[in-house]
């Protein structure tokens, strides 16, 4: 209390020393600095305060200095006036701070008197919340308010509740209350209340959410029609079907098209709906070949918890005398239920060109892991995914050790595949389903089974028959990059459908023994944002492989 009385006495002196004068500035005729107030009174809620001043004869190289030792006064800004930010006073007692102002030899002080907080319970406990009103857009999202409990024990926390269902996921931590506001699908504004309570004290925060703006929405009976297949467009506005009074236009040419419509060329198309001066978002249509297989049906459209299958590549060759040891290790994990559900494997025969399973694509894969990733130093070598900086020899314990480091119980994206052999072409219909919004790359490896080639060092007859041998790649690959080509951006909780064609140019390939391995990849911060494998799917020709869920 002695200090408070001393400060209050100083306030009185400042009132005399810095009081505005009509004839002579503070300090005498020669003073340049004139402060036009000596005391600032501010309420407990705090805010921004201003100290007006003038400098009659500015001196080059001399600047105005404003300081205070009080922590509850911050953000001092010197412009045409001196602006101060005063924090809320949560205590019942008023408080005083001194602002020291200096310009060259001229000095002056201004007192800031802040009122004590009103309210509180019988124990002097009070909850202060900032802000008291929160505005949220129609799209919703996460928001927070800051609170302070004065007069309570250290570490005291409030309880927080909401009176409406669209305010949820309320958490209290480190003086903040965080909450999630759901998307407002109505065009009407809505208001809810967030209540913070501690013992008998409560404080309320008003949450106001804007109403949604009605959009023109264009949909189609299918976004992946085949050539010659009819599709029908529908247009909805504010919950009503307005197709009959809307125009469906090509996004690029702005020409109106027929509805229903058919397309005679393979490719990407884009359309919008126009109604009463409003235009819908772009609807993309992918016109696929007439012989494209049907996309696999999704048995659980709302599920985004996928089975994860990493990519394994065994670098091998028929003249490699040690490679049978790797063949046996791989056979062991393929038969082990603790491992066989977590990978797809491709065999890169690149050790010797006389190998009947040898291919240029396999050689490129070898050079990537050997000369770019530096994990292939001999044969046999088992590599994992695209960026994993280690590999395994034939020892089963090492194979499992690296496998265990990369094994995941689930993935956030997956690809469903259907593949058909049409003449010398393989047609693949692929659906990429993603939990998160991301840009993806992909590749399709053509694999062949049942290739006979006498294996050096073989100690079982089955080792002379080679399966999953890499024959070709859909995407261009080189020793610096084997991660594939762009699939494109996929929005969160959506599915993107595409059709691809591969030509089998190698006459040695037995088409009936082929399958495809589809690999999707995305940037991974763990590897410097390089593209790493997200998931893989293996599919025999003439078959369909749907999404695999955990």
Report on the structure:
- It is built from four helices and 38 strands.
- Strands 30, 33, 34, 36 and 37 form a five-stranded antiparallel β-sheet that branches. It has a four-stranded antiparallel β-sheet with strand order 1-3-6-5, with no helix packed on it.
- It is elongated and about 100 Å long.
Short description:
Strand 24, helix 2 (323-334) and strand 25 (343-349) form a beta-alpha-beta unit.
Features:
single chain, 550 residues, mainly beta, five-stranded antiparallel sheet, four-stranded antiparallel sheet, 4 helices, 9% helix, elongated, disordered N terminus
Q: Can you tell me the overall shape?
A: elongated
Radius of gyration from the alpha-carbon trace, in angstroms: 36 Å
Task: Determine the N-to-C terminus distance.
Answer: 68 Å
Number of strands: 38
Mean pLDDT: 90
Low-confidence stretches: 1-29
Largest sheet at a glance?
A: 5 strands, antiparallel
Number of helices: 4
Q: Return the structural class.
A: mainly beta
What share of residues is helical? under 10%
Give the DSSP E fraction (strand runs of 2 or more residues). 35-45%
Topology:
Blueprint: H1 2-17, E1 33-35, E2 39-42, E3 47-55, E4 64-67, E5 73-78, E6 81-86, E7 95-103, E8 106-114, E9 126-130, E10 133-136, E11 141-150, E12 159-162, E13 167-173, E14 176-181, E15 190-198, E16 201-209, E17 216-220, E18 233-237, E19 240-241, E20 247-250, E21 267-275, E22 278-279, E23 283-287, E24 310-316, H2 323-334, E25 343-349, H3 360-372, E26 381-384, E27 391-392, H4 396-406, E28 413-422, E29 425-434, E30 438-448, E31 451-452, E32 465-466, E33 469-473, E34 485-490, E35 494-503, E36 514-524, E37 530-540, E38 544-545
Parallel strand pairs: 2-8, 10-16, 24-25
Antiparallel strand pairs: 1-3, 3-6, 4-7, 5-6, 7-8, 9-11, 11-14, 12-15, 13-14, 15-16, 17-18, 18-19, 20-21, 21-22, 21-23, 24-26, 26-27, 28-29, 28-38, 29-35, 30-33, 30-34, 30-36, 31-32, 36-37
């Amino acid at each position: 209390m002695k200090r408070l009385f001393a400060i209050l006495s100083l306030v009185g002196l400042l009132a005399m020393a810095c009081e505005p004068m009509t004839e002579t500035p503070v300090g005498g005729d020669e003073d340049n600095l004139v402060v036009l107030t000596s005391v600032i009174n501010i309420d407990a809620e705090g805010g921004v305060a201003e100290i007006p001043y003038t400098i009659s004869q500015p001196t080059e190289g001399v600047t105005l200095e404003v300081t205070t030792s009080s922590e509850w006064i911050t953000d001092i800004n010197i412009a045409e006036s001196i602006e101060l930010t005063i924090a809320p006073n949560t205590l019942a007692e008023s408080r005083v701070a001194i602002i020291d102002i200096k310009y060259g030899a001229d000095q002056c002080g201004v007192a800031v008197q802040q009122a004590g907080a009103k309210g509180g319970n019988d124990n002097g406990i009070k909850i202060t919340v900032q802000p008291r009103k929160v505005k949220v857009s129609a799209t919703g999202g996460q928001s927070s308010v800051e609170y302070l409990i004065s007069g309570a024990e250290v570490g005291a926390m409030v309880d927080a509740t909401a009176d409406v269902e669209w305010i949820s996921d309320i958490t209290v931590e480190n003086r903040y209350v965080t909450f999630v506001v759901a998307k407002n699908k109505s065009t009407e504004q809505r208001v809810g209340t967030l209540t913070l309570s501690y013992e008998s004290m409560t404080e309320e925060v008003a949450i106001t959410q804007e109403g949604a703006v009605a959009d023109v929405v264009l949909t189609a009976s299918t976004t992946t029609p085949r050539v010659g297949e009819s599709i029908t467009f529908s247009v909805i506005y504010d919950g009503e079907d307005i197709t009959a009074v809307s125009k469906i236009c090509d996004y690029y040419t702005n020409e109106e098209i027929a509805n229903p419509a058919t397309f005679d060329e393979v490719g990407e198309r884009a359309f919008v709906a126009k109604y009463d001066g409003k235009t819908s978002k772009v609807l993309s249509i992918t016109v696929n070949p007439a012989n494209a297989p049907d996309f696999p049906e999704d048995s659980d459209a709302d599920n985004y918890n996928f089975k994860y299958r990493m990519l394994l590549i065994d670098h091998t060759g028929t003249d490699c005398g040690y490679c049978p040891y790797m063949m046996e290790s791989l056979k062991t994990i393929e038969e082990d239920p603790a491992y066989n559900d977590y990978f797809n494997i491709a065999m890169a025969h690149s050790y010797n060109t006389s190998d009947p399973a040898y291919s240029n694509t396999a050689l490129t894969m070898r050079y990537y892991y050997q000369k770019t990733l530096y994990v292939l130093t001999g044969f046999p070598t088992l590599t994992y995914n695209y960026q994993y900086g280690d590999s395994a020899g034939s020892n089963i314990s090492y194979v499992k050790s690296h496998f265990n480091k990369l094994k995941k119980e689930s993935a956030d994206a997956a690809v469903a595949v259907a593949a058909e052999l049409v003449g010398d072409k393989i047609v693949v219909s692929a659906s990429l389903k993603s939990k998160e919004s991301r840009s993806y790359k992909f590749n399709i490896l053509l694999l062949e089974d049942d290739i006979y080639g006498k294996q050096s060092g073989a100690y079982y007859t089955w080792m002379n028959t080679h399966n999953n041998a890499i024959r070709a790649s859909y995407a261009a690959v080189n020793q610096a990059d084997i991660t594939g080509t762009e699939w494109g951006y996929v929005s969160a909780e959506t599915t993107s459908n595409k059709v691809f064609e591969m030509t089998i140019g190698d006459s040695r390939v037995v088409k009936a023994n082929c399958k495809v391995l589809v690999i999707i990849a995305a940037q991974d911060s763990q590897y410097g944002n390089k593209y790493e494998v997200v998931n893989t799917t293996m599919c025999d020709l003439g078959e369909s492989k749907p999404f695999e869920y955990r």
